[in-house]
Amino acid sequence: MADHKAETIDINGCATEVRRGGNGETLLFLHGAGGISAWAPYLDALAERYDVIAPSHPGFGNSDNPEWLDNISDMAYFYLDFMEQLDLTDVHLVGNSLGGWIASEVAVRSTDRIKTLTLVSAAGVNVVGVPMGDIFMWSNEEAARKMFFNQEMAEARIAAAADLTEEQKDVQLKNYFTTGKLSWNPRFHNPDLIKWLHRVKVPTMLIWGQSDNIFPPVYGEAYKEAITGSELRIIPECGHLPHQEKLDDFLAGVAANTSKT
Amino acid sequence: MRFSFFHLMPYSAVDLDAIKDTAWINFSNANYDPKEGHKLYNRYLDELEYADELGFDGICVNEHHQTAYGIMPQPSVIAGALSRRTENAKICVLGRALPLTENPLSIAEEYAMIDNVTGGRLIAGFVRGIGCEYHSYMVNPSSSLAKFHEAHDLILQAWTQPGPTAFEGKYYRFQYVNMWPLPYQKPHPPIWIPSQGSTETKDWASHPDRKYTMLMTFSPIQNVVRNMNAYSDKCDEYGYKCQPDQLGWALPLYVAETDKKAIEEARPHIENFFNKFVLAPTEYRMPPGYSSINSYKMIMENKMKFREQYLSIEMLMENGMFICGSPSSVSEKLESYQEQMGYGNLVIMGQFATLDHEHTKKSMQMFAEEVMPKLRHIGEPDVAAAE
């Protein structure tokens, strides 16, 4: 396992939990609705090649839940502050699901510190006529089963949930509550985002599970159409979490994009 | 004691077998037949009007959306219909769900109109709406509480401050608050807060600036007792004595000639109510941010576990979620509960789920003629303390 550390960094008064490990070019990983509870295998694998920075968003994990956090725009500006304060440059920005939405919102505001953008099953856009899966109506078990193509992984996640400590359950609820706050309506998207995605001119990779039950692959196509020169990779036998379910395909996609520069 | 008759207006014509996991949000309205709806609305209006004839002090309606549980998404329509057809009873809208509307001034207007038409017979209920409504209306549950408070402030401003005034909130902004009409009652209609008894609500409603009536709704008896006592304690803390009128209890209730007969007649209907019409998965009821994380966990522990099992009439009576029996046993129960809790308002839901018109009327009449007179004298204001 790569050397890594977890620390709390004050970003403009917001105590932010940050995991960091590995060597190489900077890769900022923005997590999805479920948050980051540990130095996960996908972070470890990325750390073999990059200097991986994986914060918990404000309102998630052990980061503060600041008064000012109302919407995804607040989150985007927070990450512009974050990169500025840590003086991160030439960042490979990678985001999954909710984190992919945040990454896109950051990128339409400024790519000054961003070298490449990789969106994995990203929220943020809406495709009229193709409903998203409604995670807010699903039980934990149902959500796990819909999240993965490989149902053994789903069952493993359900089994693991039984062993969670009270503290871990509180963090899960915190993540769930903040996800609701950011994405209730409009549901998991910002109608204005699509209008400005053409501003993203850095190399962009879109990685999608073919069996994503939350944002079906046509959502990836919508991103591809909006971001000139972007590449869409659809991974077979894969659900909403390619970095967990198909790690090698995920890593290959990230590597292909970051080596474009 | 003041007695009110509350109607949910359930879609009782529903095919009960069609209700699988829920009667809410996604329970298809292909199960709704407007011809049945026409009959039911008029039947239920008759029942509410009958309550006025029988001498109930209040007749109550409320708001729910996209459900067979209650087909009154816009309760002020019903309140408006009742305004001209009733003489004496207060018309209680329990309530309008403030955060569900984009413009709370529309609620202030509806209420003021009813109050004017009836010459001051409105009781204004304010609620947040239950969790399911936030899925149906796509309103963000995480700002529900903050919007509730802001909407309340806006409505009170519209009712009590000579306009035009400006309102500058986080969620609502108006340059010219200048409502026509103003409410008939001064400074404003009585305000009731139907509640499941969260600490925040108790502290807020009992505050000396407000002294709003907290109406405990559909909760197990130990919760009702605990919350009413906590409300009274909070009044003590604020330095005044809680008056009976500040406390209300709402629950389904059925009276018949004997205990045995009452249970027999009510059984299928009250069991349909708690096992079919109320039915909704946890995720439907508890959208993220609707309550604090601590409240969320507590509700999950207590209520959800209780509701995972089939609720028989015996369990419901045991838990004090349903009162049922002969006039004398019902009176005895209500009197002893009143001693424990000190409430001055009793709100009975005399029609529930599939209970038919004849039985509803029979129970209402027996309650009005044989229970109300016995309990009138209790739960009256403590004149000495009020002075």
* First-last Cα distance of chain B: 20 Å
CATH names the topology of chain A as Rossmann fold
Reported for the largest beta sheet of chain A, the result is:
8 strands, mixed
CATH superfamily of chain B: Luciferase-like domain
Average of pLDDT of chain A: 97
Strand order of the largest sheet of chain A: 1-2-4-3-5-6-7-8
What's the overall average pLDDT of chain B, rounded?
95
User: What is the highest CATH level, the class of chain A?
Assistant: Alpha Beta
Compact summary:
The complex is a heterodimer of chains A (261) and B (387). Chain A is of the alpha/beta class and 261 residues long.
Question: What's the helix and strand layout?
Answer:
The complex is a heterodimer of chains A (261) and B (387).
Chain A: E1 4-11, E2 14-21, E3 25-30, H1 41-47, E4 50-55, H2 72-85, E5 91-96, H3 98-109, E6 114-120, H4 140-147, H5 151-161, H6 166-183, H7 193-196, E7 204-209, H8 217-226, E8 231-235, H9 242-245, H10 247-258
Parallel strand pairs in A: 3-4, 3-5, 5-6, 6-7, 7-8
Antiparallel strand pairs in A: 1-2, 2-4
Chain B: E1 2-6, H1 34-54, E2 58-61, H2 75-83, E3 90-97, H3 105-117, E4 122-127, H4 131-136, H5 144-160, E5 165-168, E6 173-177, E7 191-195, H6 199-205, E8 213-217, H7 221-238, E9 247-255, H8 259-277, H9 282-285, H10 293-307, H11 313-318, E10 323-325, H12 327-341, E11 345-349, H13 357-375, H14 383-386
Parallel strand pairs in B: 1-2, 1-11, 2-3, 3-4, 4-7, 7-8, 8-9, 9-10, 9-11
Antiparallel strand pairs in B: 5-6
Word description of this protein:
The complex is a heterodimer of chains A (261) and B (387). Chain A is an alpha/beta fold and 261 residues long. Helices cover 38% and strands 20% of the residues of chain A. Chain A has a single domain, classed as Alpha/Beta hydrolase fold, catalytic domain (Rossmann fold), CATH 3.40.50.1820. Chain A has an eight-stranded mixed β-sheet with strand order 1-2-4-3-5-6-7-8, with helices on both faces. In chain A, helix 4 runs antiparallel to helix 5 (151-161). Chain A starts with a strand and ends with a helix. Chain B is 45% helix and 15% strand. In chain B, the strands form two sheets. In chain B, strands 1-2-3-4-7-8-9-11 form an eight-stranded parallel β-barrel, surrounded by eight helices. A two-stranded antiparallel ribbon of chain B has the order 5-6. In chain B, helix 2 (75-83) packs parallel to helix 3 (105-117) and helix 3 packs across helix 5. The interface between A and B is medium-sized, with 16 and 20 residues.
